[in-house]
Design goal:
This protein is α/β, with parallel strands linked by helices. It has 3 domains: about 170 residues, Rossmann fold, CATH 3.40.50.300; about 90 residues, Rossmann fold; about 110 residues, Rossmann fold (3-Layer(aba) Sandwich), CATH 3.40.50.11410. Helices cover about 35% and strands about 20% of the residues. The longest helix has 17 residues.
Length: about 400
C-alpha cells in the first residue's frame, strides 16, 4: 500500500460480460482494461488513476464478475467482494433486464458496508431496458438506473457528472490534521527518531503529513531527534504550544517536555483525523484487563521490512506483555490481507496510524471488530497508555 491509495476509489461491479472493462475504458478514455467476449476476462482487479473534475485524481477499479464460477472463479469473486468493502463509490452494472440474487447481493453488501453506490444499466444498445424493469428497480431501491452505452459518447459527461455528485465528499475533502488545535505563529516541535526502522534518506509519511499541515496552518515547525530535544527546547525563546513525537519514544520525551506544554504523537494525530477516535479512546484501557492466554491482533496498513525495533511485531508485544505480566498471543496482519482467525478470537485489536489508507478503508477494516463488540485501539494511544501518559496525549484535543 502506498500514499496514492488515499485517492478516492471507485469500483465497477456486476456480472461477467456486462461491460465492466468497457466502462472503465469509456470513462478514462483509454484502453487500460482487457475487453473480450469470453466470460471471465478480468481476473485480478485492474486499477487506473484519472483526474475527475471537481474532485481531483481518483482510482477506477475494474473487478471480476460477481457470477464467476469454478474454484478460481470463487477466488475471483472473493477478491471482488473484498474490493467492494474498500471503495468509496460502487458502480453496480445491471443489464438484460435482470434483477436477481447477484445484483441484490451487491446492493445489500453496499448497504451493509456503508458504501455509496450507483445503479447503471449497461449494454443498452444491445438490451434496451423495459419500462417494467425500470419500475421494478425504482420500486425496490428508490432510484432508476442510469442507462448508457459505451458506443454513445454523449453519455459520458452525464455519467461522469453523476459519479462526481454521488462520491461522498469525505472521500476527497480532507480536514486539517491540527487546524483546530494550533494557530498561526505557534511553535510546534516534531520529534523524529532515526533508528533501524527509519527509511533511508527520508522521513516517514506521518511525519511528512504532519509537517505539511503545520505549515498549511502558518505555524512554525522545528524538527529534531529525541536526543536533541532538550537542547532544542532550551534554545527556544518562546515555549512551543505542542510537541509531537514518534510514539516509540513517548517515555523518554515525556520526561523532557514540561507538563504545561501539550504533548502527543504522530500516530494519535492521524488516528484522530481518520475517524474512530472515540472508539480508540474507549478501547485502549482494555490493555489493563488482558489476562493469561488472551490474543491481541495488531493491524498494519502498510507492508515494510521488519527490524528488531519494529513497533508492531516487536515493541508493542513486549510492552503489553510486561504491562499485564502474563503470557499473551499476538497476531500481526499487514495491508488489507485477510485475517487468519475469526475476529472473536481476539480480546483487543490495535490499529496503526493508517497514514496510507483512507478513512473508508480504515473503517471497513475495523468494522468486524467493532460490530462484534471487541475493543479497538491505536498504536499511538496504546503506547501512551503503556507509558502512563494516556490523558496527557489527549489533552490538547480536549482543551482546544
Amino acid at each position: 500500500m502506498k500514499g496514492n491509495e488515499l485517492k478516492p476509489r471507485i469500483g465497477i461491479f456486476g456480472r461477467r460480460n456486462y461491460g465492466k472493462s468497457s466502462l472503465i475504458n469509456f470513462l478514462t478514455g483509454q484502453q487500460i482494461a482487457i475487453v473480450s467476449d469470453v466470460p471471465g476476462a478480468t481476473t485480478d482487479p485492474v486499477r487506473k488513476t484519472m483526474e475527475l473534475g471537481g474532485v481531483g485524481p481518483v482510482i477506477w477499479i475494474d473487478t471480476a464478475g460477481i457470477d464467476d464460477d469454478g474454484v478460481l472463479g470463487k477466488q475471483r469473486v472473493e477478491k471482488t467482494v473484498a474490493e467492494l468493502r474498500q471503495v468509496d463509490l460502487a458502480l453496480i452494472l445491471l443489464s438484460e433486464n435482470k434483477l436477481e440474487s447477484e445484483e441484490r447481493d451487491l446492493i445489500n453488501m453496499c448497504k451493509l458496508n456503508k458504501v455509496a453506490y450507483l445503479l447503471l444499466f449497461a449494454l443498452s444498445d444491445k438490451y434496451p431496458p423495459t419500462d417494467g424493469f425500470l419500475k421494478l428497480v425504482n420500486d425496490e431501491f428508490g432510484t432508476e438506473p442510469f442507462v448508457f452505452s459505451v458506443f454513445d459518447d454523449s453519455c459520458r459527461e452525464g455519467l461522469l457528472n453523476l459519479i462526481r455528485d454521488s462520491l461522498p465528499e469525505t472521500a476527497y475533502r480532507h480536514n486539517s490534521l491540527l487546524g483546530d488545535v494550533i494557530h498561526a505563529g505557534d511553535r510546534v516541535v516534531m520529534v523524529t527518531p532515526i533508528d533501524s526502522s527509519a527509511p533511508e534518506g527520508r522521513m516517514i509519511l506521518p511525519q511528512v503529513q504532519v509537517l505539511r499541515d503545520i505549515l498549511d496552518n502558518d505555524a512554525i515547525a522545528l524538527v529534531c531527534k529525541e536526543t536533541e530535544l532538550k537542547q532544542t527546547l532550551d534554545s527556544m525563546a518562546v515555549s512551543p504550544r505542542l510537541v509531537i513525537t514518534d510514539s516509540q519514544v513517548y517515555g523518554f520525551v515525556s520526561e523532557i517536555v514540561p507538563d504545561d506544554v501539550y504533548l502527543t504523537s504522530f500516530s494519535v494525530v492521524l488516528a484522530r483525523a481518520k475517524g474512530l477516535f472515540e472508539e480508540y479512546i474507549k478501547g485502549t484501557p482494555t490493555l489493563d484487563s488482558l489476562k493469561e492466554g488472551d490474543r491481541v491482533l495488531l493491524l498494519e496498513s502498510c507492508t515494510h521490512n521488519v527490524t528488531c525495533e519494529d513497533i508492531g511485531r516487536v515493541k508493542l508485544p513486549k510492552l503489553i506483555s510486561k504491562h499485564v505480566n502474563c503470557e499473551l498471543s499476538f497476531d500481526v496482519v499487514a495491508g488489507l490481507s485477510a485475517l487468519q482467525r475469526p475476529i472473536r478470537d481476539y480480546s483487543l485489536v490495535i490499529q496503526c496510524g493508517g497514514c496510507v489508507v483512507s478513512p473508508k478503508q480504515l473503517a471497513s477494516r475495523l468494522a468486524p471488530a467493532i460490530d462484534a463488540g471487541i475493543p479497538v485501539s491505536n498504536y499511538g494511544l496504546a503506547l501512551a497508555f503503556l507509558n502512563g501518559i494516556f490523558d496527557r496525549a489527549l489533552r490538547i484535543f480536549k482543551n482546544k
